[in-house]
Amino acid sequence: xxxxxxxxxxxxxxxxxxxxxxxxxxxxxxxxxxxxxxxxxxxxxxxxxxxxxxxxxxxxxxxxxxxxxxxxxxxxxxxxxxxxxxxxxxxxxxxxxxxxxxxxxxxxxxxxxxxxxxxxxxxxxxxxxxxxxxxxxxxxxxxxxxxxxxxxxxxxxxxxxxxxxxxxxxxxxxxxxxxxxxxxxxxxxxxxxxxxxxxxxxxxxxxxxxxxxxxxxxxxxxxxxxxxxxxxxxxxxxxxxxxxxxxxxxxxxxxxxxxxxxxxxxxxxxxxxxxxxxxxxxxxxxxxxxxxxxxxxxxxxxxxxxxxxxxxxxxxxxxxxxxxxxxxxxxxxxxxxxxxxxxxxxxxxxxxxxxxxxxxxxxxxxxxxxxxxxxxxxxxxxxxxxxxxxxxxxxxxxxxxx
Amino acid sequence: xxxxxxxxxxxxxxxxxxxxxxxxxxxxxxxxxxxxxxxxxxxxxxxxxxxxxxxxxxxxxxxxxxxxxxxxxxxxxxxxxxxxxxxxxxxxxxxxxxxxxxxxxxxxxxxxxxxxxxxxxxxxxxxxxxxxxxxxxxxxxxxxxxxxxxxxxxxxxxxxxxxxxxxxxxxxxxxxxxxxxxxxxxxxxxxxxxxxxxxxxxxxxxxxxxxxxxxxxxxxxxxxxxxxxxxxxxxxxxxxxxxxxxxxxxxxxx
Lengths: 402, 254
Fold this sequence. Notes:
The complex is a heterodimer of chains A (402) and B (254).
Chain A: E1 13-14, E2 17-21, H1 24-40, H2 44-56, E3 64-66, H3 68-74, E4 78-83, H4 93-106, E5 111-116, H5 120-132, E6 135-141, H6 142-147, H7 149-157, E7 161-165, H8 172-185, E8 190-192, H9 203-211, H10 213-226, E9 232-237, H11 241-247, E10 257-265, H12 276-279, E11 281-285, E12 287-292, H13 317-324, E13 328-334, H14 335-349, H15 355-367, E14 376-381, H16 389-395
Parallel strand pairs in A: 4-14, 5-6, 5-8, 6-7, 9-10, 9-14, 10-13
Antiparallel strand pairs in A: 1-2, 2-12, 3-4, 11-12
Chain B: E1 13-19, H1 25-37, E2 43-46, H2 57-68, H3 73-84, E3 91-94, H4 98-103, H5 105-114, E4 117-121, H6 134-139, E5 143-144, E6 147-148, H7 156-162, E7 167-169, H8 184-195, E8 202-205, H9 209-213, E9 218-221, H10 223-231, H11 235-253
Parallel strand pairs in B: 1-2, 1-9, 2-3, 3-4, 4-5, 6-7, 7-8, 8-9
């Protein structure tokens, strides 16, 4: 957490959060990954290859688009959209996947595995595996494979094998369990490309670093466009990878308000929610100490959101720390509000944004009118919404099947 | 530190694994008693967790049956209390760190001491992350039993030296209970390394008892016992036959 004051007990922790709570069978490999990451993260050859791929393959830098119509319509702060949806494969996920896959290659690994919820991280991993000529297997909850069939097919087109996970609640957390188990059995040739800012050290740090390209760019772009930093940065939070990337380079700029938007599902105060920061308590799960939705016995709750990418019962440890330090604020948006935002941004700005991102948009729709016209919001559109069109239609009772 | 190590003094130790409340309290209590009466030296009682990342499908399914039965920590403690009315067979808990963390390490370890639970196997608490639990385990004399994996190269000495009670050596790559086939060479090499730095007893999980018994001090039976309970019918009769058979095989090697 380079941007925050160093008050951590060691490199693997963010205050009391973080750590490496993982079976012994993975400890050496985790340490190998950490060693490799620390060896290469400042290595000029590594950085050159990373930047080359980001700029010439993934289509970076992504636009910082001034949403003039939204701004006028909402009648408050100026709204800028950081267009991660314009990246190759259609989401911010590619930033991190390129970085981790380059580490994997340098470690001599020939096989990439990944978990995925909505499918965007799986698609990104399958894409880079194809590009690098690596074997690829993706673990995805059975329920998610059903609601994100298009992305399953994309992954298969890219040459990946998709495993529908039928254990537990058959969603993202179960896909993580399955991927961890598979990794433990194949560490000789396999690198686990973790998709969010979660899991044991060094994953939260790697994901932070590889996603920080979002805020690095947006900072330069807003300084060029407006001559000053934004007042507020808004991003959706599931595990928290796009949010940590959107926040990273602003963490030390205390006047910039950071807001993470969680999936409130049917309501933050209902049992059909994924609002970890608001409802969660400290626990230990998926290799990290962080905030989790869990019962008083310590059993992890089944969570709910219309968005497969956000229905994760935990959040990355750095977010838990940012909330504890009150450096970032976390709010919930319901399915209804997110679907309204999905339709609003499509009609107002001609952008079909991912339902995950529309949680952030929905909050901006509430926030902007309360701010002055000379104030600035940057909202990250973390992915494109093609994958969600069928879900939205279904939510609205529209039958779009042939 | 408990006297768990002493169980290994004069015999090859048999440790069956039973999931608490699978499929109900009475079956679990009776199964523990049956196993103890027929040769089990230590009982490893699985405390179900919603997301058992280190367990294979047989144990995962047993956990689901326990959840269907309404298992919670009070039920786990009730099971041990009922066993303690009749038997003082050594019991260890196998669970994930969030369970004691959420209950409070102090309270959890105190409860273990009250129930005469001798040790804890916690797969997601590698030695690097045991510092938060260890002071409470020490305070109440509960052994933290470490795991050594085939991928533990370079860590074995550290793990063995920190070991209390016994050390659990996994001979296969991946989650527990995925494969029951014994990787003999792997096991032999690991055992040699441990023995060179520590005299702590060594246990491995396998159903190939005769093959493993010459190498290690104790055998952990995971899937087989869980499967016998899952199959239903005359569970206690089947458990008795199984336990007697295992014990006989081990006795030959003792």
